[in-house]
Amino acid sequence: MVWDEVKQCLVLSDAVCLVTGGAAGVGAALVSSLLTENAQHVAFLDIEEKKGAALETQLNAKFGALRAKFIKCDIANEDELTRAYKLVTDKYRRLDVVVNNAAVLSRDGENSGRMVDVNFKASVNSTFKAVEAMSAENGGSGGVVVNISSLLALNQDSRLAVYSATKAAVLQFTVTLGKEPFYTNSKVRLLTVCPGPTDTAIYHRQNLQNHPAHLTQPYFQKQSVESAVLGIIEVIKTGASGSVWKVADDEPAQDISQHVKKGFTVFSSVVKK
Length: 273
Ligand SMILES: NC(=O)c1ccc[n+]([C@@H]2O[C@H](COP(=O)([O-])OP(=O)(O)OC[C@H]3O[C@@H](n4cnc5c(N)ncnc54)[C@H](O)[C@@H]3O)[C@@H](O)[C@H]2O)c1
Ligand SMILES: CCCCC[C@H](O)/C=C/[C@H]1C=CC(=O)[C@@H]1CCCCCCC(=O)O
Fold this sequence. Notes:
Pfam families: adh_short (PF00106)
Keywords: Oxidoreductase
CATH topology: Rossmann fold
EC number: 1.1.1.141, 1.1.1.232
CATH class: Alpha Beta
Low-confidence stretches: none
Strand content: 5-15%
CATH architecture: 3-Layer(aba) Sandwich
Distance between the termini: 31 Å
Bound molecules: nicotinamide-adenine-dinucleotide, (13E,15S)-15-hydroxy-9-oxoprosta-10,13-dien-1-oic acid
Family: Belongs to the short-chain dehydrogenases/reductases (SDR) family.
Number of helices: 9
Strand order of the largest sheet: 3-2-1-4-5-6-7-8
Helix content: 40-55%
InterPro entries: NAD(P)-bd_dom_sf, Sc_DH/Rdtase_CS, SDR_fam
Mean pLDDT: 93
Shape: globular
């Protein structure tokens, strides 16, 4: 039976969660919010060792010993990612929620390979590892994987062509893999979230405002980190596998799956007879 027919709403209490890029920005606020929702354990992966360790200490003091677990991990390094997954599944014996949130952003022409490796390749690798651990087809109890894309996946802003392409790839991958019968077979929901501009370090990165095109294209209005996290939590609880959600403008999460479907119907009309 598909998720929409069951009209379920996931209860996060006692869940074991894993968040990539959890030492700062949206990821850090999400780790804290999952613990507020009574998740049993939240493991978070990041390259920022000092920030990650400090957040772990702070969260365990607030929510109880061992509830938060920082794992230093460059998600673009497959061996490190494999080790992190093994550590989590060996330690907690289950995995219910994974949010692939870590990403990097640079101007076009700078660090293109790193953007592809972190934003796209690592999200793909992490998704397959999560599904392997959760899938009912492997004896698991199902779960949810959220891949964080961007509204730039749906737009053509000439200032951030490579970053936008990595986010479009994340969206296409997640929607395509997550379509039925994926949930029916695995009991895992694969979800895409497209945040709008949000007040974190990535938003303020690289003096992008000095890019020549910024004079001709409107500057983005940013939402709060709290709004972004509220939206992601709502999507984790209610989203059907293969669905896509807009989380922007300090507004509740909006299911934009039909817009995306319409777009791909237009694209594929040139492929199909
Ligand atoms: N802030 C925005 O305006 C905005 C808008 C749309 C989408 N997003 C997306 O939201 C997500 C969260 O971004 P944010 O705004 O919190 O950015 P951020 O830069 O504040 O946080 C990103 C975190 O990811 C970590 N990270 C980067 N590379 C890593 C790697 N190789 N391995 C492990 N951790 C790594 C960073 O150390 C950092 O802690 C990203 O996927 C981003 O693309 C952000
Ligand atoms: C010269 C370039 C100015 C850049 C402004 C800002 O630093 C960038 C914000 C982006 C950061 C991560 C995103 O996904 C953010 C983009 C969110 C998507 C907004 C799409 C809305 C639109 O394209 O109108």
